[in-house]
Amino acid sequence: MSIVTLTREGHIGVITINNPPINATSHSVRAGIVDALDQIDGDPAIKAGILICEGKTFIAGADVTEFGQPPKDPILPDVIKRLEATTKPVIAAIHGHALGGGLEVALGCQYRIADKSAKLGLPEVNLGLIPGAGGTVRLPRLVPVTEAISMITSGKPVSSTKANEIGLIDAICHGALLDAAKDFAQTILDRDMPVALVDRIPVNAPDSAEWDEIIASASKKARGQIAPVTAINAIRHGIENGAEAGLLFERTKFVELRDSDQSKALRHIFFAERSVGKLPELDGVEPATITEVGVIGGGIMGAGIATASLLAGFDVIIIERNEEACANGRNTVEKHLSGSLKRGLINQDRFDRLMAALSTNTDYAALGTADLVVEAVFEDMGVKHDVFGKLSEHCKPDAVLASNTSYLDINEIAAKCVNPGRVIGLHFFSPAHIMKLLEIVRTTRADAKSLATAFAFGRALGKISVPCGVCDGFIGNRIMSAYRKHCEYMLEDGALPHQIDAAMVAFGFPMGLFAMQDMAGLEISWATRKRLAPFRGIAERYVALGDYLCELERFGKKNGLGWYRYDENGKAQPDPEVDALVIAESEKKGIARRNFTDDEIIDTILSAMRNEGDKILSEGIANSPDAIDVVMINGYGFPRHKGGPMFLTRK
Ligand code: NAD
């Protein structure tokens, strides 16, 4: 069957695209559209056209297999020009997603309608690009310029309701899309042809002062990413110099960005995220069906994991130590879900149903029907053994048992369980209902079905699941410990905390290491260091500055003092007392302090990450360098547009 077909239904020519899975703008689709338009124009019996797609979605992007290939005519910008030049009106009938080139095709059509669950967007910035087929020129001539800027610079799609509000579509339709499109066609047959978007004037164009503000705010938000600001410049160019000049400018910038390091990095991570959780050894392994999820411990992590599981549609039971802790767990989940309700992510009805799907209990016997259980109790091997002993006793023999431990040896936890093959690690990140990353830790005895079930669970929760082996800190915390150590060495060698943090922020991290420690609170890691002190090697270099801060009761942001001093608005200020402490420590140790440039600071951090990453790979803890990049970007604030520490330092 052809990828693009034209059928005549009365006075209407229906162009149908069938290019699964996403109806990408492959060469055959582009050529097919042009061919169908020629036929429609040449057929006097056809009065209007409909452009519609088979399958799950409208055109949802470009054909990735054509990336890096020489362009083959007709290229997309020409297809869209051809759509604009048609003599009969064409209606884009959108379902699923109209993304990137897909939305640009729809912008070339004379009308757009969408079903109520459709999403429309220009996500090119996510790959370090700008729209390359007229999106920056046509969109601001259809919707208010500020809305166009917001869509293009955020890369986030809008719902059909929003699209209708801002004028991006002409109608939202209910029921069968093709029927609705045909009905809509009847209403426009007598109208004049709409003016092509390139010939319209921009909607509410900003004045020069407003442009300055828009650009300043976008630059700040972009934190070093080039594409969002380039997109604004392209929009502005098209507005101030006319559509033709705008199209040319857009194309030039698109090509420039396509060859940029940032776009290469963003494309790398885009593909890495999609491939990292695919394990060939699990091909064909059927995961167990999950209906009911048990969560042990309703603290920070447990409540987050319970919330994520509820949102994914599972029944959830939280087991806690006593009634009060049960109530606290339930309240925390309720607070998380109320947040989603307030932000409009769920409605009241769904909120009520989710809360009804949650139960709490102090008796492990209530876990008899759970299909998967995640333990999130205190980080203590004795407590974990106790919990897994009870799980072995009360859970179904094939229920998957997972630990959310940050550092403990899950092989040791599994060893004492009935059926250790079903014990795995599910290492969530805080807040667990928001953070996308999930490290799935395979114990040495983990069986394929339990692993497949864990990955299916991660998918259901909408997480990016990264497989990893058992070691101290798994992938992310282990790399973080390594680079933290080197940051502490730099303090003794001559750098100051705020200087290291500033270099990290300038590099693209949302915050520096020391500000992050202040946010998390310094006393927990202090307690861990004290606990581990007897096991520390004598030859190991140890930086005691964090301990000194705690001894001075500087526990971080929550008590206003840590590596920084916090003002009344909670804003971090470098503290001369801390600087003095750092300098005195170097003197005490006889270290001659030296200057560090920002580049040296970043190089030190990157090589620490790289070295630990190499060790992790050689030990088989991570499957690939990509897995490490995915973890550091999604769990530790590594700037996405740099592609991750392994990509950036690739040899
Ligand atoms: P938390 O102190 O907030 O919560 C622990 C909860 O477990 C408490 O509510 C406690 O009452 C409950 N609990 C303790 N023993 C229990 C038992 N025998 N049966 C039932 N409930 C019991 O701790 P947290 O921060 O949620 O951490 C939990 C686990 O998750 C730890 O292993 C931690 O290392 C790990 N983790 C924490 C984070 C984080 O950022 N906080 C991130 C990843 C992993």
From TrEMBL:
User: Could you tell me what reaction this enzyme catalyses?
Assistant: a (3S)-3-hydroxyacyl-CoA + NAD(+) = a 3-oxoacyl-CoA + NADH + H(+)
Chief localization class?
other
Query: Which residues belong to any copy of the 3-hydroxyacyl-CoA dehydrogenase NAD binding domain?
Result: 293-468
Q: Boundaries of each 3-hydroxyacyl-CoA dehydrogenase C-terminal domain copy?
A: 473-566
Kindly give the PROSITE patterns that the UniProt entry links to this protein: ENOYL_COA_HYDRATASE
Ion transport is among the record's keywords:
no
Coiled-coil intervals: none
The terms under GO molecular function for this entry are:
(3S)-3-hydroxyacyl-CoA dehydrogenase (NAD+) activity; enoyl-CoA hydratase activity; isomerase activity; NAD+ binding
Write out the annotated subcellular location. Peroxisome
Q: In which pathway does it act?
A: Lipid metabolism; fatty acid beta-oxidation
Q: Which UniProt keywords apply?
A: Fatty acid metabolism, Isomerase, Lipid degradation, Lipid metabolism, Lyase, Multifunctional enzyme, NAD, Oxidoreductase, Peroxisome
User: Per the similarity annotation, which family is this?
Assistant: Belongs to the enoyl-CoA hydratase/isomerase family.
Spell out the protein name for this chain. Answer: 3-hydroxyacyl-CoA dehydrogenase
State the species of origin: Thalassospira profundimaris
